[in-house]
Amino acid sequence: MLDPARSYDLIGDVHGCAHTLEQLLADMGYRLQNGVWRHASRMAVFVGDIIDRGPRIREALHIVRNMVEAGQAYCIMGNHEFNALGWMTPALPETGKQFVREHTPRHARLLGETLAQFEPYPDEWLDFINWFYELPLYIDAERFRVVHACWDANLIEPLRGLHGNGCIDKHFVQASAEAGSFASAVFDRLLRGTDMRLPHGMTLTGGDGLTRAFFRTKFWEDDPQTYGDVVFQPDALPEGVAKTPLSSTEKNALLRYGMDEPLLFVGHYWRSGIPAPIRPNLACLDYSAVLYGKLVAYRLDQETSIDPSKFVWVDVQRPEAV
Predict the structure, then answer these.
(1) How far apart are the C-alpha atoms of 288 and 278, rounded to whole Å?
(2) Architecture of domain 7-194+258-321
């Protein structure tokens, strides 16, 4: 799918920060020509989550889709694009739901900015919904891989057998509405990552205002001993929970992406600080752009381990300049 000899610029979650995206592209040597951002020798790869939350979602989608359709970029699906598909897709009658992603206040809040900004452009929104089906759930370029949240070979290999190009269809989205189905597992793991239930029925309210009974976990830790060793999210666990030992069952259930596997790039996790590798073969490119963090890219050439000096970013400014 990708030319292995080519150089790529892998770009983190945009979330509607269109002006910041244009600045990042310009800083990396891309130029706007006939409505498309182009580079003389490189291509962009977006890790998903182009939509939701930000001030210029429609503009961001046009930038990315124009680049993809002109052969200047690839884009994979993020959980927010999948959420939009679920919101718009009628559920199968036997599920007892009206839509794959039920129209609850919580779900409406997450998609609210996108729906509001497209309200004057309903036909355009439906066109983008159809385009989301053209976004693969992962890219495996052999020397490097891209997935929005988590690489799980136990799901990707059978998915590859069903959908060789990594793109899914309406039937797959509808199947995901059934808890415990293969489709549901694929979306949860690849687009949302791994998680673990908080002990003793606890819940935590995160910085985004949402209350959860689960916390996001690392999928690469080799020998974790406590909950604190595996937590991977902006919101810290309470100290007592962080020190809780992992049971053997919990340890065995953890996924491990090996140090000997190809370079892997993900988004999704709302990181902060100075962009850096997580491990020599793993980097997260989501640095909370829409929360006035950084819109980050990694400039990949032929290296076999991630070079800390090849991260580039734009610090996102307050609303008047975003």
Answers:
(1) 16
(2) 4-Layer Sandwich (3.60)
